[in-house]
Write a structure and sequence with these properties.
This protein has seven helices and six strands; from the N terminus they run βαααααββββαβα. The strands form two sheets. It has a four-stranded mixed β-sheet. Bound molecules: zinc ion (2 copies).
């Protein structure tokens, strides 16, 4: 059994290019809500899907959230905005957004999934305690990728996924506080 490395490199072409039919990769955080809605409507219709308030609310939340929420977290947030929406509808809306190239899906070995309103290539930090995922502002230099790809016998690299794992500031703080509150034996 190999110990889980701090930096896990996974080859995942999907994380880099979320589908051939995807629109131009942009960070939706950079556009106004009105423009985001117009873009959503257009992209959904081009892909043969209807624009619905449910899908729009799910899309808005996924774009605004910085923690890359899972389907349940999206549901908890959006149900306050769209009364009567079900978890199944949220899940289907998320999958539709991913299939249209409007969002990315981050899957994990335990079967869980998180959703990202960004579809441009970028990397993540993943808290192993609370599960929250955040974007890393920095990029790896193309040199380091070239070095990594060297010596791969016959393997054709089509993409990569970089995720730093560890503890977010809140979980680190919690561990520290708990530790200091425990009386020494
Ligand atoms: Zn955490
Ligand atoms: Zn992200």
């Amino acid at each position: 059994m190999v110990k889980k490395p701090v930096i896990s490199m996974k080859m995942s072409p999907k994380a880099v290019s979320p589908g051939a039919a995807s629109p131009k990769a942009v960070s939706p955080k950079a556009v106004s809500p009105k423009a985001a809605n117009a873009r959503l409507r257009k992209t959904l219709e081009v892909s043969g899907h209807r624009f619905t308030e449910q899908r729009a609310a799910v899309y808005r939340f996924v774009c605004d959230a910085t923690t890359h929420p899972n389907a349940d977290e999206v549901f908890q947030q959006v149900r306050g905005e769209v009364p009567g929406i079900s978890l199944a509808t949220v899940y289907k809306s998320l999958e539709t957004l991913v299939n249209c190239g409007l969002a990315s899906k981050l899957t994990y070995s335990d079967g869980s999934a998180r959703y990202d309103g960004r579809t441009d290539p970028h990397h993540h930090v993943h808290c192993v305690s609370c599960g929250r995922v955040r974007d890393i502002p920095g990029h790896l230099s193309p040199d380091s990728l070239e070095i990594l790809g060297k010596g791969l016998d016959g393997f054709r690299v089509s993409g990569y996924r970089l995720e730093l794992t560890g503890f977010c500031s809140e979980c680190s703080l919690e561990t520290d506080t708990k530790g200091s509150m425990d009386p020494p034996n």
